[in-house]
């Protein structure tokens, strides 16, 4: 998009709390980065209040940066200047003192604007970004967030002239188009839309077809609709410029609001003002009586009675004075610090919950949570009420997003309850540990903290109405080997307490109150399964050999030292996938070369002389590292992820390669591979870069070890179909079965709505694997498979018979896979 006009108005935002002022500034600046916006919050010593000196410094600084409009005349109030917005009346009094201190030539260029702070700041910033003068910017702030009249209510014209203009309005024009920009109508595109429609004499609305729509000139209303990429939207306009306005909006949408890297056709078609209602979707077939179908999130088979986990809203103290906001803030900060310390101890302790505890620390550190609570603190609101209001706001915002984002809403509420607990609120669920031993716990959703507590209490299994297999609760359940089935639907909540059930997390089914003969058979199968698992663990340390004497390598997928130790305990022959991104997932910045080398070296040291395959940074898709500020659409499953991102950021990749080669010095055999390779040219480029980095280290006299083999992950169907070309460039290939399945089946593995199509064992996946393995064997290349498919015993046997050399899986799956291979390969 062409560059817009130069902003000639700056903003100073004043609030009694520093975090609130800075948060509003961040929001406004995101939509109008070209506008000079300063935040002034709190007292000079960091308390709640205002600071005359800070306000004066901010106003004079912005005045110095904003050049006067030479043609404005009369004090330049119609041109360049500073608009000052504030949260409370006491801030206004201080700001008035600041104006009295300024010289007349300066004070004439400053306006105090009585407007809602958040909405007013956004409206003022977007208006200033369009080149508007001071008076127009102030007017936009004052008019911000005016409610749209309810259905059936007429908008009263402000003047006779306006009433006359209403009579001359042309017929309403409507058109539809599909959003193409990666993140849909988020803040920046909504600001561009608002700028555009203000240029026309028309009232323009935008929304989903069939909905009333919101004013396109109102940024917050547009953003609140949550219109995402691929969503069909309807644009409507009335007024003398209605047709021109609609055409301009369609053109802006066709250009992706300036956020597209390349052109793709858009869909736009004028439609009549009234459309028939869409047909109701067909009802989902109900399962047969007695069987609930869901998705297995943590494998296992159990027979046990049901116990419900009923959660109630926390009992918060009542509002009403007097409360000292400063004292309440100190209580809240202390509680947050206490929970943060507890999470830090868990993260440092290793085990299956370490990574999740670290992720929760990162969430707790989000300044928006604390700022939202502080903004609610006043003389009648205690810390508990203010904090919980901020948590619920963040939870509901996440819950409305895509499946993977929505799963994190549970984590936010879990964190929120932990802080409430530190503030003295009883947040325990209604079921106590002594009630759930050897029972199947039923719940609408479970928190990560629930899983840990229930596991310690000896719960037999978990049957969850919602949730997903990628949720933190599911990850913890797998680490605890606690059988869990998710997405069972609301019917599971109707199963009475005490009802016997058979929970089969291998198939994702729950049988409710089956006949006694079926219960007896299921108990026998569960005992046999447990006995077999114990035998498999005892024998797991030994190797697996084919009848012809060639070995089969059974490896582990690990992400840190704790998992490396778990892999050895489970009998892993090697590490088939060392996920380097998990070392950095919760950090605000990526570590440097020395820190990466040290951490990777520590993981390799745990493995002794066992071989490890190190995968370079695999970001994007469902791995959005906070240090890289990745967009979930641009860097989504079909976007710039894996080696694509690494090639676009060569310094990041070279630093990591140097760290890996240095960490490999003096360790066991290290192989190196790149993720998300699609074509042979990418494999060749990666290998050449590894050679370049090795040459640099050698020339510098730095101790390092070249990788014994260089390979790539095959996760894209295109790569599997041209495996012969890729194998000509590398020493080995490793199939990422989880990603390969989602691309073959066109079913995002993090999206519950298409969970029934995400089938790692589908014949289409097997046929593609056969093509790949044949090509790799013909080229004499080592071929590995990692992910869910490799860890399923039946699939593992089929893969080895197909010609796969190595299987890599979660450590807990190794004993069962080795046992299956030994018993069935002969």
TrEMBL record:
Alphabetically ordered keywords of this record: Cytoplasm, Kinase, Magnesium, Metal-binding, Phosphotransferase system, Pyruvate, Sugar transport, Transferase, Transport
Parts forming coiled coils: none
InterPro entries attached to this UniProt entry: DhaM_N, HPr-like, HPr-like_sf, PEP-util_enz_mobile_dom, PEP-utilizing_PTS_enzyme, PEP_util_AS, PEP_util_C, PEP_util_CS
Annotated compartments: Cytoplasm
GO terms for biological process, alphabetical: phosphoenolpyruvate-dependent sugar phosphotransferase system
Family membership: Belongs to the PEP-utilizing enzyme family.
Name of the protein this chain belongs to: Phosphocarrier protein HPr
Source organism of this protein record: Actinopolymorpha singaporensis
Lineage of source species: Bacteria, Bacillati, Actinomycetota, Actinomycetes, Propionibacteriales
């Amino acid at each position: 998009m062409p560059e817009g006009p130069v902003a000639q108005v700056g903003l100073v935002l004043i609030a009694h709390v520093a975090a609130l002022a800075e948060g509003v500034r961040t929001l406004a600046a995101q939509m109008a980065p070209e506008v000079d916006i300063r935040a002034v919050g709190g007292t000079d010593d960091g308390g709640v209040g205002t600071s005359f000196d800070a306000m004066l410094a901010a106003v004079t600084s912005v005045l110095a940066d904003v050049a006067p409009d030479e043609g404005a005349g009369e004090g330049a109030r119609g041109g360049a200047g500073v608009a000052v917005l504030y949260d409370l009346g006491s801030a206004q009094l201080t700001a008035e003192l600041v104006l009295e201190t300024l010289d007349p030539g300066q004070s004439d260029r400053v306006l105090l604007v009585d407007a809602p702070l958040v909405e007013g700041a956004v409206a003022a910033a977007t208006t200033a970004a369009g080149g508007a003068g001071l008076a127009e910017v102030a007017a936009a702030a004052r008019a911000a967030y005016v409610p749209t009249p309810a259905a059936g209510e007429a908008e009263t014209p402000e003047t006779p002239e306006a009433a006359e203009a209403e009579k001359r309005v042309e017929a309403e024009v409507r058109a539809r188009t599909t959003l193409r920009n990666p993140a849909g109508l988020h803040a920046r595109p909504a600001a561009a839309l608002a700028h555009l429609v203000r240029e026309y004499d028309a009232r323009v609305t935008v929304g989903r077809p069939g909905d009333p729509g919101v004013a396109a000139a109102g940024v917050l209303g547009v953003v609140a609709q949550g219109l995402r990429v691929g969503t069909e939207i309807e644009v409507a306009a009335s007024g003398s410029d209605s047709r021109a306005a609609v055409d301009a909006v369609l053109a802006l949408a066709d250009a992706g609001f300036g956020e597209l890297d390349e052109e793709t056709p858009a869909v736009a078609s004028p439609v009549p003002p009234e459309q028939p209602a869409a047909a109701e979707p067909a009802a989902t077939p109900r399962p047969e009586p007695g069987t609930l179908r869901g998705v297995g999130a943590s494998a296992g088979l159990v027979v046990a009675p049901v116990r419900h986990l009923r959660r109630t809203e926390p009992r918060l103290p009542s509002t009403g004075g007097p409360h000292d906001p400063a004292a309440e803030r100190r209580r809240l900060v202390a509680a947050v610090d206490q929970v943060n310390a507890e999470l830090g101890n868990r993260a440092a302790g290793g085990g299956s919950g370490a990574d999740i505890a670290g992720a929760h620390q990162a969430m707790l550190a989000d300044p928006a949570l604390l700022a939202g609570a502080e903004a609610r603190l006043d003389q009648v609101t205690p810390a508990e009420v203010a904090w919980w209001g901020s948590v619920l706001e963040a939870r509901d915002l996440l819950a409305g997003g895509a499946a993977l984002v929505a799963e994190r809403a549970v984590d936010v509420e879990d964190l929120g309850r932990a802080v409430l607990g530190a503030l003295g609120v009883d947040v325990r669920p209604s079921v106590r540990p002594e009630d759930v031993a050897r029972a199947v716990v039923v719940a609408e959703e479970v928190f990560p903290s629930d899983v840990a507590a229930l596991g310690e209490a000896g719960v037999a299994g978990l049957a969850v109405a919602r949730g997903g297999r990628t949720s933190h609760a599911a990850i913890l359940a797998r680490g605890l080997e606690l059988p869990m089935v998710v997405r069972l639907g609301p019917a599971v909540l109707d199963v009475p307490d005490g009802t016997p059930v058979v929970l089969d997390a291998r198939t994702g089914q729950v049988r409710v109150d089956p006949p006694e003969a079926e219960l007896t058979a299921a108990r026998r199968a569960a005992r046999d399964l447990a006995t077999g698992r114990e035998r498999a663990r005892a024998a797991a340390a030994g190797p697996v050999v084919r009848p012809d004497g060639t070995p089969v390598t059974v490896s582990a997928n690990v992400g840190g030292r704790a998992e490396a130790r778990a892999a050895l305990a489970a009998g892993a022959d090697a590490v088939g996938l060392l996920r380097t991104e998990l070392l950095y997932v919760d950090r605000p910045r990526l570590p440097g070369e020395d820190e990466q080398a040290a951490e990777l070296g520590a993981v390799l040291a745990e493995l002794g002389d066992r071989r490890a395959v190190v995968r370079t940074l695999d970001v994007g898709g469902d791995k959005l590292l906070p240090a890289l500020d990745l967009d979930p659409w641009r860097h989504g499953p079909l976007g710039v992820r894996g080696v694509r991102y690494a090639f676009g950021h060569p310094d990041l990749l070279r630093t990591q390669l140097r760290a890996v080669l240095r960490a490999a010095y003096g360790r066991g055999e290290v192989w190196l591979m790149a993720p998300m390779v699609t074509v042979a040219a990418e494999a060749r480029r990666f290998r050449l870069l590894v050679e370049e980095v090795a040459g640099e280290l050698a020339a510098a006299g730095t101790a390092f070890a070249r990788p014994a083999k260089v390979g790539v992950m095959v996760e894209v169907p295109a790569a599997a179909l041209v495996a012969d070309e890729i194998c000509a460039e590398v020493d080995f290939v490793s199939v990422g079965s989880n990603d390969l399945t989602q691309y073959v089946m066109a079913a995002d593995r993090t999206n519950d709505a298409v969970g029934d199509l995400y089938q790692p064992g589908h014949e289409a996946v097997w046929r593609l694997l056969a093509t790949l393995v044949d090509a790799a064997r013909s080229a004499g290349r080592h071929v590995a498979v990692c992910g869910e498919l490799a860890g399923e015993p039946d699939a593992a046997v089929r893969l080895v018979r197909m010609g796969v050399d190595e299987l890599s899986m979660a450590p807990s799956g190794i004993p069962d896979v080795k046992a299956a291979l030994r018993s069935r390969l002969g």
